[in-house]
Amino acid sequence: MAITSEQIAKLANVSRGTVDRALHNRGGVSPEVSARIKKIAAELGYTPNTAASALARTKKRTTVGIIIPANQNYFFDNMKSGLLLAQEEFSNYGIQLEIFQTYGLDEYNQLKYIEELEKKGMNGLLISPVNTEKIKNKIIQLTENKIPVITLNSDIEKSKRLCYVGHDYYQSGKTAEGMMALINNRKFKLAIITGSTKSLSQSQRVEGFINNAKKRSHDFDIVEICENNDDDIDSYLQTLRILKEYKDLNALYITGSGIYGVVKALKELKLERKICVITFGDLPRTLEYVIEDTIDATICQNVFDQGYVSAKLMFNYIIKNEYPNKDKYYTKIDIRIKENILPNY
Amino acid sequence: MAITSEQIAKLANVSRGTVDRALHNRGGVSPEVSARIKKIAAELGYTPNTAASALARTKKRTTVGIIIPANQNYFFDNMKSGLLLAQEEFSNYGIQLEIFQTYGLDEYNQLKYIEELEKKGMNGLLISPVNTEKIKNKIIQLTENKIPVITLNSDIEKSKRLCYVGHDYYQSGKTAEGMMALINNRKFKLAIITGSTKSLSQSQRVEGFINNAKKRSHDFDIVEICENNDDDIDSYLQTLRILKEYKDLNALYITGSGIYGVVKALKELKLERKICVITFGDLPRTLEYVIEDTIDATICQNVFDQGYVSAKLMFNYIIKNEYPNKDKYYTKIDIRIKENILPNY
DNA sequence: TTGAAAGCGGTACCAG
DNA sequence: CTGGTACCGCTTTCAA
């Protein structure tokens, strides 16, 4: 039988109420009594019964704010599903999610929503932050006000957030290079098409790719790194130009959006089977291109897990005061080729 | 506020006890009253508070039996970790796991352990069954005695088990072929090394591989399908023989164990960089060979998830009477190459 | 600063 | 077959 607060109370010659107040630092307990209680609890290895505490606090509701982008609907819908699944598993704890979505990375609205949530008295925040000074300071301030923050999918260093849950962009860039090397027998002439060199995540994917190729001494030649602004038309035109200019190109590496544009250009020049194409993400259209053999492999970041894991970490922190045991939680890097694209598990 | 059994009791003019008995089919309720209660509950969309029921049943302990192989320690340790994590998440429900491990697929001991568990009064069974008539009948019998059975990692068709949680061996064979085709530009001459053609899972991997190559019209030539009995020495000798016999071989496909033997033979002939090798599993040694470039890719089956998912399904069934909503739960098929082998998340 | 006690929602036993 | 009731372990309010 597990230890109960009742048992601790008896051993410490106090009431259950006092035990509860002491162990949760709710205040109003004399330091000596508190210390005595904590000591006994530690010795016995006391872990509170979560079912009982959930039940006792049913009237209370705790709100967790969520601020994520809304573009690339499918992507963030997936993340939301993960968040909602975690919420469901914790349904008896009366946790309410307040989800706000901004179009693109929008500092102004992120700040606005954070303040709105603060007024509502949120108990924790999950955010995919824009990496700016203002947001960073806001997160620091929340943390100092005892409101835990977890960054999700994008991070801000030194913002004092509880932890980060997301992708390792650098490593996924390396993985893309590893795949390309396997496919092209360690020798390729390629163009890199990135959304914007200013996007940290995308530039990490480029950097990881290049460093891996160098480190492994692959025989590679990057003819160009071009920006498509994550736009399909831009992407289409640039790809067309590149493909015409470099006749012996044998690979394309796409780090962001604009995949449709790339594919359209490839098909127009009837090169879709000749050029090795590696992309990121598992948007339905991307997967279609993998299935029809236009894209050779796409590297995925388990966005669903990101939502699920981050929400669980937040809930456990708020409810059980359980600290995350890592600073960064990286979700797995999945390689999807034609054969292992499956209906979701 | 969520619906409570109290509210239903009032609406149905009965006591909470009767509501509980009716909704859980515990018997001792007249059909009319039971129907009335169920109707009201359904209309209100009643879902019992799991925290409360966990709390109420703290005294009761429910035992779930687990019977899995013990060979390839690392593999099943991983599965056990998943099982234990699920147990921890349900720790307040007083669930006890009774784990038995058999060496190899051992019908005699599986039966013995099942019977032992029955005597102890287990409430559910998770098993990686040997596919024999006796075990099949035993599972049917358990199910008929209201003891739910979930098959884990290996399945028996028509055994009336609640569901199967595991790997899609056929599809993972296809995935292996897909990778090999990418690496060898859709043209390869290979030998297949399998543990035993009698092992269902391994023969499915072979079948999936071959069918995929045919379907996609790859230019392939299988010089031999040989059995190594999952034994390293056997594996070593056979690989050596094959490599000497077929000088223009460019690929090896290993569906089971004996990977060390294959690698030893390859290294001895200094062919480790020249021949494309695809294996299964993420045993530490296998991953080492991937990292050192001897194995090009290894296909993994997320054994941890198998343990976690199956245990959760079992617990939810026993506690909340929640039926699995699929007959087969396939875990993801992961492709691991040098770059996306990461310390576990 | 502390104790006592009333719940939270469901379960199970006993009495009728 | 049904109602009443005493828990399960923790939280919170009220009173001292």
TrEMBL record, chains A, B:
Any one Gene Ontology MF annotation carried by this entry is: DNA-binding transcription factor activity
Q: Which UniProt keywords apply?
A: DNA-binding, Transcription, Transcription regulation
Query: Boundaries of each HTH lacI-type domain copy?
Result: 3-57
Could you tell me which Pfam families the record lists for this protein? LacI (PF00356), Peripla_BP_4 (PF13407)
Q: Which domain of life is it from?
A: Bacteria
Please indicate if the UniProt record lists GTP-binding as a keyword.
no
Cross-referenced InterPro entries, in alphabetical order? HTH_LacI, Lambda_DNA-bd_dom_sf, Peripla_BP_I, SBP_2_dom
From the Swiss-Prot or TrEMBL record, give the protein name. Answer: LacI family DNA-binding transcriptional regulator
- Organism, per UniProt? Vallitalea guaymasensis
Classification of source organism: Bacteria, Bacillati, Bacillota, Clostridia, Lachnospirales
